[in-house]
Amino acid sequence: MRGVVNPLTLRQRGTVLMFALVYLGLLAMAVAAVSETHLFQVRITPALEARLQTRQKALGLIEQWLTCLGLEVPRGNPGTRFLTMPGCSHLEGTANEHAQAYLKILSDDGGIPPRLGEAKASSAIHYEAVRYEVVVRASVPPAISTLHQGIVVLAPRSDQ
Questions:
Q1: Which residues have CB under 8 Å from 139's CB, separation 6+?
Q2: pLDDT reported for residue 25
Q3: pLDDT band at 86, cuts 50/70/90?
Q4: What tens digit of pLDDT does each residue of 92-103 get?
Q5: In what order do the strands lie in the sheet with 127-140?
Q6: Which pTM does this prediction carry?
Q7: Alpha carbon distance, N-terminus to C-terminus of the chain
């Protein structure tokens, strides 16, 4: 009876073979999906890194400007732009082909938010309000970022 094959054994072998093929097919599709995603991620990563670097550079320049100004109120008519500020000579070296920054006066003693206007009007101390913004444009090829940081300063009005 060596020549007789049990049909149950053949059926079991076929089932195991079918499950193995399905498993290998699913495994191959998973590997292909992961490898394609990884390649796409490698292609997109330099652009995201450049965007992050430009934003960090721009925020750093804004921080330098605001640190240099401190509590000093910039003087000038609305629309006046300052490429550097007196006493901030270290800011002159920050402008180059990859980063530009300037301070722009938006309004003086007007155009402030209503809540600050009410506080200013009801105060016994005479305040002057100045709205200005620091604008920074930074680039790390291929990315370019432009940030506007707006500031409102209420300072006691000098009697001079």
A1: 54, 98, 99, 145
A2: 94
A3: low
A4: 555 566 778 888
A5: 81-82, 99-108, 127-140, 143-156
A6: 0.58
A7: 121
Tens of pLDDT, residue by residue over 52-85, are: 889 988 888 888 888 888 777 777 788 888 777 6
Read off the tokens for 131. Answer: 């709205």
Residue 66 CA to residue 135 CA, distance in Å, equals 11
72-99 exposure pattern, b = at least 16 Cβ within 10 A, e = fewer: ebbeeeeeeebebeeebeebeebeeeeb
**Residue 141 to residues 36, 46, 97, 135, Cα–Cα distance (Å):** 26, 10, 11, 19
Find residue 102's DSSP bridge partners. Answer: 135
SS3 state of residue 21: helix
Q: What CA–CA distance (Å, rounded) separates 75 from 53?
A: 32
